[in-house]
Design a protein that fits this description.
By secondary structure, the protein is mostly beta strands. It is built from two helices and 24 strands. The strands form six sheets. Strands 1-24-23-22 form a four-stranded antiparallel beta sheet, with no helix packed on it. It starts with a strand and ends in a 14-residue tail after the last strand.
């Protein structure tokens, strides 16, 4: 296993939402509080950036072109070339929330969750976030409520289960998933890190899944990504990211989907913390893991 920094200080605030675009062989990610969308080209090492007007939590490509993004409390369509932003839906009216993480399910629907303000603490913040589903016909549906920080999403290869993270209670949930209707049911906790050492497992943040249906979870404040068995909740292995503590998300990429891209945050990192973790806010690539990921789904609407 090898860990390298591929985009040094990629984010001024929080690099998040990595998505490997297998059509262009590039990595999409966002810098949430800088309101920017980034596209990293591994072959050249260059990064393209689009500036938006509000916080951006995630982006996913759309089959018909452009990207679907969570911007503020809105789901929007972003045309990469013209930079035109078209609002599709606004949610959580009257609430102090914003979209955070989002991904597409195997049928090409967008799932995206919101979060409230992180006050007074992450553990004590209000649970006013919700999980939404954008269908292929453009309609939006509220799927679940009362979350602190809506985060990582993943699905099993047989399309029968969906996984979802709420970072506030430090839990990973499993739902029964109906691929034809997109409905979820029977929520249960499969990993519960409440009360455990932050240095050991941190706050579960973004997440991806490999070809063996095992979960790779970014551990915010713990300098690592942990691989879990969702059947048992047991830790199978972990990847240390020694030069950044606030690990935010991860996804598999590369032409063979055998590279793990890992994002991190520099938001509210003190000068003392930067001395200890000088690559906070950077994007990393992990190779020689011995496993591969699955191709990321895109919006088919």
């Amino acid at each position: 296993m090898a860990v390298e920094c591929v985009v040094k200080h990629a984010a001024k605030s929080a690099a998040e939402g990595p998505h490997w675009d297998d059509i262009t062989n590039t990595l999409l990610f966002v810098d949430i509080l800088e309101n920017t969308v980034h596209r990293y080209h591994p072959e050249t090492g260059t990064v393209d950036v689009i500036q938006l007007d509000e916080n951006v939590g995630f982006v996913v490509p759309a089959r018909k072109g452009g990207l679907i993004a969570g911007v503020g409390r809105c789901l929007v369509h972003l045309d990469w070339d013209s930079k035109k932003v078209t609002k599709l839906h606004e949610v959580d009216h009257g609430l102090q929330t914003r979209f955070n993480d989002g991904k597409c399910d195997p049928q090409g629907r967008v799932w995206a969750g919101t979060m409230g303000p992180m006050v007074p603490t992450i553990e004590g913040m209000p649970k006013i976030g919700s999980l939404y589903r954008l269908d292929l016909d453009g309609s939006l549906h509220t799927m679940a409520k009362n979350f602190g920080i809506s985060n990582g999403l993943a699905w099993t290869a047989d399309n029968k289960s969906m996984f979802f993270i709420d970072s506030t209670p430090r839990q990973i949930y499993r739902y029964d998933f109906d691929k034809s209707t997109g409905n979820i049911s029977n929520q249960r906790v499969i990993v519960d890190n409440a009360g455990k050492s932050l240095d050991d497992c941190g706050f579960p943040d973004g997440m991806t899944v490999d070809q063996e249906d095992k979960l790779w979870v970014a551990c915010f404040a713990a300098s690592k990504v942990i691989r879990y068995d969702p059947e048992t909740g047991q830790r199978l292995q972990h990847v240390e990211i020694p030069s950044a503590s606030r690990i935010t998300s991860c996804c598999f990429g590369g032409k063979n989907l055998d590279e793990l891209y890992v994002t991190s945050s520099a938001y509210e990192v003190s000068s003392e913390e930067f001395e200890k973790y000088p690559l906070s806010g950077s994007v990393f690539r992990v190779t020689d893991l011995g496993v591969r990921g699955r191709k990321a789904h895109i919006y088919e609407g």
